[in-house]
Structures are given as structure tokens and as C-alpha cells.
Write a structure and sequence with these properties.
The structure is a single chain. By secondary structure, the protein is an alpha+beta fold. The chain has 2 domains: 72 residues, Roll (Nuclear Transport Factor 2, Chain: A); 172 residues, Roll (Nuclear Transport Factor 2, Chain: A). It has 6 helices and 12 strands. The strands form 3 sheets. It has a 5-stranded antiparallel sheet. The protein has a 4-stranded antiparallel sheet with strand order 1-2-3-4, with helices on both faces. The chain starts with a helix and ends with a strand.
Amino acid sequence: MIYTESAFTAGAASLLVAVMVLSACASGSSVAQDPVASETAEVETPVVEEPTTVPTEAPAETPTEVPTPEGEALSDSDMIALARTTFDADPQPGELIAWDHLDATAFGDRVRLEICSWTGDTVFDDLRTIEYEIRADGTANYLFDGSIPGDCLNTELIDSALAFTRDYDTYWASVLEDPTTFDPEVDLQFSTQDHADAHTQLAATWVSDGAHWQGFAFDGSLPESSVQPIAFRRFEQSDPGIDVLDLVSCRELASDFGLYRGEVLIDDGRGGNELGPHAVDNYQLTRVDQRWVTAGIQGLSWADCFAVDWLTGISDWQPEPLPWNLLP
């Protein structure tokens, strides 16, 4: 409330009158007392303002760590695919140059692969198993490998051997047509040393006789040009101590097949017992320094590859040392 000077003076005068009246009464006269007009001051009730509460930022809640769910377990086929991919990138053992995946089994966290492997050192391949542990991080950990009993036929072994026969045919076709093209150094790329020596003498004889061959079956097109499936067998030859892959084909023989001097036929290879229009060729192959070479070539002219069962006929012709089989 605000007080002014005039208000304060009027209040003092009223107080003086009241004192005087009170003095008269105090002397014994009964006097009726005049009501004292008292000014009631209006009191302003202060408004108490509620303190303003400044909201404080609530502390950030620590995020509850949600556990990361484990990845879905790989299926058996996924595990096998992973193991095969890992093996192909790093084959075990490291000396393998070719392999065929044959079978695979997944069990628990492991995969066992079965392969037909080839080192390239011999004409033989090897049936092997390789085991991997499939880890939770999606990798395959090599555990061990080893040979197991059983036979297999590695694709690269056979494909490369047949490719060699095509190169051999191409080279020898030129020599048969013109023996003067024979080169002992080139021949060593296709033959063992002892057979290359024999070829040198043979080519020299043809040259001295002025002879050449024509109508032969060396067409450089095996296995497609064989009218019967290619037959094969593998064995260790004690003398001269090598292992041998035998491949036998049957191809059409030209009607003018034979050894000629100029245009004159000297020998057509007919012995009076000719049966048919086919040439049967036996390529005897071995491995030297990781490459194919011939350990010998044997042929049968004017044969009939359909007169008897194919394998029976080959076995009658070349019975030793093992039975024959057909390439798949």
C-alpha cells in the first residue's frame, strides 16, 4: 500500500481528539462516548507467486543392449558348398594338379569330401577324403586328408591323355606322309628315349627306300573319331619299370591304306585274313616329367570292330596283363 503526506496528517488529528475525550471521562462525569470513526485501511493481500520450476532435462536412458541373434545355421548343402570352395582354393595335399569331386557328407559342424585326385606324376589317380570343420564365422577349417580304398578315374588324367593322342597323331601324320620331316628332337617330345631311337631308324629306312604311307587312321580326332568307345587299362610294367596307360581306339581305315614308293603300293598290311574296314590302335602311354609320352604303339589293320563284343575282341588281341574297361 502507498502512504501520502496528507493521509498521515489527518490520522494524527483524529488521534488527538480521541485522547482528549478519554481524559474527560477519567474525571468522573458520565458522559456518553462518541463513537470514534476509525478508518479501516484496505490491506492488499500480496499474491504469492508460485516459484516457476524450470524443467530439467531427464538423464538419457542407457540403451538396453539387445543381444544380436545368432546367424542361421548353414544347411548341409551350404556347408558342403563352402568346404568344396575352400578345397578348390587350397587343395590338400598341395601337390595335386587335378581333382574331381565325387561325394560329400555333412555331419554336425564337419564336412567330409570324397575326391578323385591326380598328382600328374603317374598314370594312376587316388581316391581321397578331406575333412573340414565349419566354423561359426562362415569359414571352413582344414582338419586332415587321406587315401581310401577304391578306384576312380580322374577327368583331367583321361582328357589330357586323349589330347596327347591328338598331338601325337598330328605329328606322325606328317612323318608318315613324308618321312624326311622326321626330327629326333621333336620325337622326344612324344616318346621315351628308347622308342625315339627306334623311330629314328625306322624313318631313316623309309627315307632310304623313298617310301611313304597314306590312308592311315591317325586323324588327330580322338575320341570323337573312334567308332567304338575308347577302351583303357592301367598297370605297372616291371620291365622297363614304368607305369602304363593303355588306350585303344577303332577308326575307319581308308581303302588306299598302305606303304607306297611314289604311286606304287608296296604293302597294304593285308595278310589274307582281313575282316573289315577298321584300324585298331593301341596307344601305350606313360608319364615323364609331368607330361605324357608314348611307351609304344601297336596297330591292327583291316579289323572289324563289330564282329564280336568290343572288349572281348580287344582282350583276344591284347590279353595281358589286365582286363580292359571302357571310358565313361
